[in-house]
Design brief:
By secondary structure, the protein is an alpha/beta fold. The chain has 6 helices and 5 strands; from the N terminus they run E-H-E-H-E-H-E-H-E-H-H. Strand 1, helix 1 and strand 2 form a beta-alpha-beta unit. This is N5-carboxyaminoimidazole ribonucleotide mutase.
């Protein structure tokens, strides 16, 4: 089974954040690979990964990084595959990583989600994958319907909560 998505982290310390994406892909039955590669410590490995990702069957890359956060942009500079950047909150409340990922030069786009937003990155990756795949479109629609159901149920539970001055 070939991976459709690659989750790349600058360090294994990013796994607690990126685990949400991995669990989502497992739930959706999307084959993925997950690796730690550093733009600064393992640049040759990053280059090899980026240049060979398409041949491995990868269609979307999710790259997470904190602090200087060069990894998503470096990968995007070496591939034509879509890259989704996940800024990791490691210093400066993650703003340094967010700005480093979102402020790419013209010609090197990186779609960027919120700080520690790996679940949204995974959902966006699935949306990209589903553009020409009805089965994936159906999985995505069911997932979003489940989100709606959870809110409806939460409101029903809130209606049962009693407070002296509550009006609904």
């Amino acid at each position: 089974m070939k991976p459709l998505v690659a989750i790349i982290m600058g360090s294994t310390s990013d796994l607690p954040v990126m685990e949400k994406a991995a669990k989502f892909f497992d739930e959706m039955e999307i084959p993925f690979e997950i690796n730690a590669l550093s733009a600064h410590r393992t640049p040759k490995e990053v280059e090899s990964f980026a240049k060979n990702a398409r041949e491995k069957g990868i269609k979307v890359i999710i790259a997470a990084a904190g602090m200087a956060a060069h990894l998503p942009g470096v990968i995007a500079s070496m591939t034509t595959l879509p890259v989704i950047g996940v800024p990791i909150k490691s210093s400066l409340d993650g703003m340094d990583a967010l700005l480093a990922i979102v402020q790419m030069p013209p010609g090197i786009p990186v779609a960027t989600v919120g700080i520690d937003g790996s679940l949204n990155a995974a959902i966006l990756a699935l949306q990209i994958l589903s553009t020409d795949n009805v089965e994936l479109q159906n999985k995505l629609a069911a997932y979003k319907e489940d989100l709606k159901s959870k809110i409806v149920k939460a409101n029903e539970e809130l209606a049962a909560v009693k407070y002296k001055f509550k009006t609904n």
